[in-house]
Predict the structure.
Amino acid sequence: MKQPSLQQLRAFRLTALARENQAIADMNASIAQTPDSLVKELMDTHGWPAHEALSAVQQLQETALRDTSEQAAA
C-alpha cells in the first residue's frame, strides 16, 4: 500500500482539527473556496476567458505550494 505524502498527512490533520474547532473549519472552508472566487473575479470583473483564469489560478496555487514546501524544508 502506498504511504500518504506529507501534504496528504497535513490535510488529514487539518481536517481533524476542523472537526473540533469552528474557527479552523471556517478558515479551511475559506481557503478551499478562494481559488473559485478568484477565477470568478477574473472572468466577471476583468473579462478573462475561463481557460486563462483557471490556468492563472492553477499557476498561483503551484507557486504557493512550492514556496511553502521550500520554507518547510529550510
